[in-house]
Amino acid sequence: MQNNEKIQENMKLSIVIPVHNEEEGVLATVGGIIKELEAEKINHEIIIVDDNSSDSTPKITDDLSARCPNVKVVHRGPPNGFGRAIQEGLRNTSGDAVGIVMGDSSDDPKDIVGCFRKIEEGYDCVFGSRFLKGSIVKDYPLVKLLINRLANNFIRMLFLIKANDITNAFKLYRREVIRAVMPLQALYFNITVEIPLKALVRGFSYAQIPIRWYGRKSGVSKLGIRQMGRKYLFTVLYVWLEKLLLKDEVKRR
Ligand SMILES: Nc1nc2c(ncn2[C@@H]2O[C@H](COP(=O)(O)OP(=O)(O)OP(=O)(O)O)[C@@H](O)[C@H]2O)c(=O)[nH]1
Ligand SMILES: [Mg+2]
């Protein structure tokens, strides 16, 4: 539920973008976000977290950062990991709200604005969903889509929630939510479920909005569903156990 006490003027938004070998897409992704946020007069910073890229991603992002004072680049050495990169990005944010956005142009900058407006309304978390009336999904590989629907329905039933695209990383959170879900344990793509589920079991409010999502047009996918499946399951079950343990505490809020 929305909280009127949390309505705040001129909030700063930090966008965390993990990238690994995204030389073909990163410039367009970040450029599109800056353009949209500037047009909407949203006070922002962008934290790009590059994991050890072997292509020209480090140079492209460093050049961009030199030109744009709001863009900061963090270069990580091995071991790589989507979750490690997100955690590093979160440590580097200074905004009142934080958004996690992909570096391969799969998310639409207009949806960042849509989510941010909901945060401004007072919600603690805003989840972008590809499976609501009004969502647009282009070029989602069929196998991934089927696994997504199975996984998200399982999560919905386990946690008794309405959110139907928890596995999608594209989400915005108030700073206090990020603080409350620490420490994070997921080092890989499973962090996409750890953060929102931990936020929910801690009793934070959320809104879900339909978003646009586009399959990558260049570069290579880094998500190996086979290797990640067990990690996702472990994280979901671990937060579910937390839910059981935190039940009384949440009731007291
Ligand atoms: N820093 C960092 N970024 C990563 C890592 N793995 C993936 N990424 C980035 O995370 C984002 C999502 O990865 P993708 O490979 O697009 O995963 P996906 O969206 O499931 O796969 P596609 O359907 O092919 O787009 C992209 O911006 C990647 O560059 C990593 O180990 N470290
Ligand atoms: Mg992608």
| Total count of strands | 9
Question: Considering the protein shown, what is the CATH homologous superfamily?
Answer: Spore Coat Polysaccharide Biosynthesis Protein SpsA, Chain A
Overall structural domain count: 1
The profile of the biggest β sheet is:
7 strands, mixed
- In helices, the fraction of residues equals 40-55%
CATH class: Alpha Beta
Walkthrough of the structure:
By secondary structure, the protein is an alpha/beta fold. The protein has one domain (4-248): Alpha-Beta Complex (Spore Coat Polysaccharide Biosynthesis Protein SpsA, Chain A), CATH 3.90.550.10. 44% of the residues lie in helices and 18% in strands. The chain has 8 helices and 9 strands. α1 (26-39) links the parallel β1 and β2 (44-51). α1 crosses α4 (109-121) and α7 (191-201) runs parallel beside α8 (225-252). The protein is globular. The model has no long low-confidence stretch (mean pLDDT 94). Guanosine-5'-triphosphate binds at residues 18-20, 22, 49-51, 80-82, 85, 102-104, 106, 215-216, 221-223.
Offer a quick outline of the entry.
The protein is an alpha/beta fold and 253 residues long.
List the helices and strands and how they pair.
Layout lengths: L12 E7 L6 H14 L4 E8 L5 H11 L3 E6 L5 H10 L5 E4 L8 H13 L3 E5 L6 E3 L3 H18 L11 E4 H6 L10 H11 L4 E5 L1 E3 L10 H28 L1
Parallel strand pairs: 1-2, 1-4, 2-3, 5-8, 6-9
Antiparallel strand pairs: 4-7, 5-7
Helix pairs in contact: 1-4, 5-8, 7-8
Bound molecules: guanosine-5'-triphosphate and magnesium ion.
